[in-house]
Design goal:
Length: 343
């Protein structure tokens, strides 16, 4: 009987030692097969119990049962511990995953040409204290026309120029609607930059599209002058084209929502004596600007005797085409990979 007792102690120590060494599910399964399966060491000991006398059974029965129960319990504890460790390792691997260490065989993406130009413009105006504001693409007649001093019989309201949804709603024809909503809702002084898609009902060709992007700026404060406007426009264009020596030229122009109104030309950034981009003139037409019309201020409940301001609007699509030498406006919305891969 001493041999049996020694055998129990020996198998118990071997089991605990093997269990402690097991660090993977495979190693743990080997321990189970070796000690707890039908042909394992512990079940074989249990079979010996049948051959013992009744007195020996009373003595060794509890000892063998305790060995079997304790071994199964410790096996389950070890199994749960290894499962938890595997889960923690998986979570740590997710947390510490280094995206730069993975080299995909797929083609790398790139920014749409609009994106870097928008970022440049935002950087310029945010550095001057402007806020970026966004508005609705579906607008009402008041914010798109009336508040901007555009009369009922103005050509801009013609069905050939505008996508009307119903008698009062339309797809905005310019981003100036954002200026109106900001003047209505924000405290003065006000300095905003807005950009986004606009919609005009016109034929599509290399230089025209029914969807295009605009960028606009608005400053409302006391004693705002044309000099403030000129300086702002020059800083903006220099920032976009990365040229400190870029000049602007001002010409008189008419826009219903500003008075006086001006047309803004930029010195061609691509040549010194004339090229195909500037059509040999050395100047490129950029957009319109001026001091905010008193009627526009009145429509937004702003006292025009106390406050003044300037506004400008440029074709963001035109700026992008000029900066990157794009000769077909349709490419910007085409989704063609051959075009986008250039940027």
């Amino acid at each position: 009987m001493d041999d049996l007792k020694h055998q129990v102690e020996q198998i118990k120590n071997q089991f605990l030692h093997k269990l402690d060494l097991a660090q993977t599910e495979v190693e743990l399964e080997n321990v189970r097969i070796l000690f707890l399966s039908r042909e394992g060491s512990i079940p074989k000991l249990m079979h010996i119990l049948k051959e013992l006398s009744p007195d020996d059974k009373r003595h060794f029965g509890p000892l063998l049962n305790e060995l079997k129960k304790e071994s199964e319990q410790k096996f389950e504890e070890k199994k749960k511990k290894l499962a938890l460790e595997a889960l923690n390792k998986a979570e740590m691997k997710k947390t510490n995953f280094d995206v730069t260490a993975y080299e995909s065989k797929m083609p790398k993406g790139s920014l749409h040409p609009y994106t870097p130009v928008i970022e440049l413009i935002e950087d310029v105006f945010i550095s001057m204290g402007y806020k970026v504001a966004q508005g609705f693409e579906l607008e009402d007649e008041f914010h798109n026309f009336e508040a901007l001093n555009i009369a009922k019989n103005h050509p801009a309201r013609d069905m050939q120029d505008t996508f009307w949804i119903d008698v009062n709603r339309l797809m905005r024809t310019h981003t100036s609607t954002v200026q109106i909503r900001e003047m209505e809702s924000q405290k003065l002084p006000l300095a905003i930059l807005s950009y986004g898609r606009t919609f005009r009902n016109e034929a599509t060709d290399a230089s025209h599209d029914f969807v295009f992007m605009q960028v606009e700026g608005l400053l409302i404060d006391k004693n705002v002058s044309m000099g403030n406007l000129f300086a702002t426009l020059k800083i903006m264009l220099q920032g976009i084209f990365q040229r400190d020596d870029l000049d602007i030229r001002i010409r008189p122009g008419y826009f219903p929502f500003v008075e006086p109104g001006i047309e803004v030309d930029m010195a061609c950034p691509f040549c010194t004596s004339g090229c195909s981009v500037c059509k040999k003139t050395r100047w490129i037409e950029m957009g319109g600007a001026g001091l905010v019309h008193p009627n526009v201020l009145k429509a937004c409940n702003i006292d025009s005797t106390e406050y003044s301001g300037f506004a400008f609007g440029f074709g963001l699509t035109r700026l992008v085409m000029l900066k990157y030498g794009i000769n077909d406006i349709r490419l910007l919305n085409s989704g063609k990979l051959e075009f986008l891969e250039q940027f």
